């Protein structure tokens, strides 16, 4: 194994990945894994994902300089309950601590867009995180079919994932182990 010297970004920007198509979390993970290969430190905070059986958890845990923490329950929710609101609040507080620590070069707020869409957290809290971001920290925001216009307004890069065809719709194939989770 080779030793990677710690580097810092000259300028951290804000990236947003959202839409009906697959690949939002995967795009953020790709950015994170690439960055660790160049000596940067990455932290992914997963909102509304309490299931440790996601393949990315093991991959991140095996990658130097890449950390992850999940907030939420194991089940996918349709209507947020008290526990979801509590987990959302904890995730926001933790995200603020990680972003403000200036210890990490890239901070990924995975599924925070869904948390806003579902009313688990308030968009104003996300905007505050975006405003507090230190200059050399790259912030990556993912999740949701739509992204709140105020978040998009503050972003430096926005990618909308568009579903053209999906095997669930065309063939009835559900989420597959190693592919979707």
Task: Please tag this protein with its features.
single chain; 181 residues; alpha/beta; Rossmann fold; six-stranded parallel beta sheet; 7 helices
N-to-C order of helices and strands: EHEHEHEHHEHEH
Question: How are the strands of the largest sheet arranged?
Answer: 3-2-4-5-1-6
Oligomer: single chain
Q: In what range is the share of β-strand residues?
A: 15-25%
Radius of gyration: 16 Å
Q: Please, how many helices?
A: 7
Overall geometric form: globular
Count of the separate structural domains: 1
**What is the average per-residue confidence, as pLDDT, rounded to a whole number?**
92
Which stretches are low in confidence, meaning pLDDT under 50 for 5 or more residues running?
Answer: none
Helix content: 25-40%
Largest sheet: 6 strands, parallel
Structure description:
The protein has 181 residues and is an alpha/beta fold. It has a single domain, classed as P-loop containing nucleotide triphosphate hydrolases (Rossmann fold, 3-Layer(aba) Sandwich). The chain is 38% helix and 18% strand. The protein has seven helices and six strands. It has helices at residues 24-37, 55-61, 82-101, 112-117, 123-132, 149-154, 167-171, and strands spanning 14-19, 42-47, 66-71, 106-110, 138-142, 157-161. The chain has a six-stranded parallel β-sheet, sandwiched between helices. β2, α2 and β3 form a beta-alpha-beta unit. α3 (82-101) runs parallel beside α5 (123-132). The longest helix is centred in the middle third of the chain and has 20 residues, at 82-101. The chain starts with 13 loop residues before the first strand and ends in a 10-residue tail after the last helix.
